[in-house]
Amino acid sequence: MKLSFFGADQFVTGSCHCVEVNGKKILIDCGLQQGRDEISNEDFPFAPNLIDYVLVTHAHIDHSGRIPMLLKRGFQGEILTTRLTADLMRIMLLDSAHIQEQEAEWKNRKGARAGQPPVDPLYTIEDAQRVSEFLKTCEYDQVIDLCEGVQVTFTDAGHLLGSASIHVTMTEGGETRTIVFSGDIGNVDQPIIRDPIYPTGADYVVMESTYGDRNHTEVWSYTDDLAKIIDETITKGGNVVIPSFAVGRTQELLYFIREIKDQKLVKSNPDFPVYIDSPLAKQATTIFTGDLHGYLDEEALKLVSDGTHMFNFSNLRMTETVEESRALNMDRTPKVIISASGMCDAGRIRHHLKHNLWRPESTVVFVGYQGEGTLGRHLLEGAKSVKMFGEEITVAAKIVNFTGLSSHADRDHLIAWISAVQHPKPRHVFVVHGDREVAPFFAQTLVGMGLEAHAVQYTETYDLITSTQVESGYLPERKTKTFDGAPKAAPAYDRLVSVGNMMTELIKRSRGRDNKSLASFGEQLKKLLEKWDI
Questions:
Q1: Is the pLDDT of residue 514 over 80?
Q2: Which of 128, 142, 298, 335 has the fewest CB atoms below 10 angstroms from its CB?
Q3: Coil, strand or helix: which one is 323?
Q4: What is the pLDDT of residue 533?
């Protein structure tokens, strides 16, 4: 019975963990890394064809974004998640595949001029469409008999519609262990979705730590503060550009803007135009207005019951085509533009930033976490200029970090969450999904609370029966990030490590083969090692 870590290990994106029990391998999330290219997105440190199940905590791409690639590399198992996560994943993975194809096309156009060989996308739209064939869904608190000796239960994590913490009970060789995977723990008092449910009791906990070193700034009124920003910018004749995750955060913004318009809080133009420039956001909003039984909070339920459309108001427009998106920057009418991606590393938002960052009358409002190495983090850290699409862009627009809107629990609420799990106290807490400075700091906080805890490293493996580390991990070398088109290719060293891990898996599977074949294989490896002076 083992637990291994393959992503979001002292980093905030790319979540991927693996439990091995009774000969089965179960992944919890399979996310895409965003921001710094410390770990290659192009390879797995395990053999995808040997994975039996994938449990998905929620639909955000940093938790689900490499599932199509998993299928592409040979996965034939079952993917289990909540009903609404499955609905959102279907559209989000298609959107991600579209971005992968666009980035490969961009690289190939640039590479052709430099005489470089063509590259393939991580996965295609066809790969993303295949995910539905493997999806099975459940509801919150439903006990699922996953396989021999394994039961799983999804509980509301309060982070996104359908998001979950996953409680896994495993029995092997007469020994039983329970483990809770927190997923992304939600903030409290958010619009639309419910507060997170705090699980109780587990032998082990795998816990996120995104905001483990700080609390959110207290905001007296989301609508008042956002209305003030919009009013000031429109009065100056500028645009309010909001990089936003198309799923979850965009719908929250629409919820607040509906209130702003109902209360006429923007005096300069009470009926200011609002554009959602994201086909994905439009599709997601449709899901947010569908069958949400068991997912909405009390206030949102009241709105729905009295016939109010949570996300609809006058002068709201949703763009579909690239031409419509481009036209927004030709129109000088002051407006609010909400566009993806939320960290500014891909999508239409980059074009809106190119056309607005240099304008002192415009405002760029960040409403979510900005990962290390992303353009969003670079702007928040005070960049005076950024290079985009081969052009140096001066940053003259007002940059606002609207910290009141966060779908992640802050430090105090993370502590409240783990305090609830301490009945009985877990044997160990594995801290993940936090920056390199944050995860170890939060792990020390837990140690100070009397818990056994540490911030895990990439490829680290634990024996859950003996509660001991059986394989150490490592922290990949940090890379800097430039902001000129598509992300750079993955480091060769990380690809080498990935291939090495695959070789280890192959050796393990060779047990029982005939001696002649094993001797031949061993001799080939020996010659290779001698060639590299190892």
A1: no
A2: 298
A3: helix
A4: 46
Q: Rounded to a whole number, what is the distance in angstroms from the first to the last CA of the chain?
A: 32
pLDDT in tens, 189-223: 877 788 999 988 899 999 999 999 999 876 556 78
Q: Domain check: are 369 and 248 in the same one?
A: yes
Residues 368 and 462 in one domain: no
Predicted confidence (pLDDT) at residue 261 exceeds the cutoff of 60: yes
String of DSSP letters for 441-456: HHHHHHHHTT--EEE-
Give one DSSP letter per residue of 328-382, joined into a string: HHH--S--EEEES-TTSSSSTHHHHHHHHTT-TT-EEEE-S---TTSHHHHHHTT
What lies within 8 Å, CB to CB, of 460 at 6+ separation is 4, 5, 9, 469, 471, 472, 473
Domain boundary at 355, 374, 401, which? 401
Considering the domain architecture, whether residues 464 and 511 belong to the same structural domain is answered as no
* Residues 71 and 141 placed together within one structural domain of the fold: yes
Q: Do 35 and 108 lie in a common domain?
A: yes
| CA pair distance 14, 30, nearest whole angstrom | 7
The closest of 205, 208, 167 to 13, measured between CA atoms, is 208
pTM of the predicted model, to two decimals? Answer: 0.78
Burial of 416: CB neighbours in 10 Å, binned 0-12, 13-18, 19+: middle
Question: In CATH, what number is assigned to the domain containing residue 393?
Answer: 3.40.50.10890
Query: By CB neighbour count within 10 A (0-12 exposed, 13-18 middle, 19+ buried), where does 151 fall?
Result: middle
Residue of 118, 120, 65, 117 lying closest to 94 (CA atoms): 65
Q: Residue 251: which H helix or E strand, with range?
A: helix 249-262
417 neighbors 409 (Cβ within 8 angstroms): yes
**Residue 498, domain extent:** 491-534
Do 307 and 375 share a domain, yes or no? yes
- One-letter amino acid of 238: G
Burial of 345 (0-12, 13-18, 19+ CB in 10 A): buried
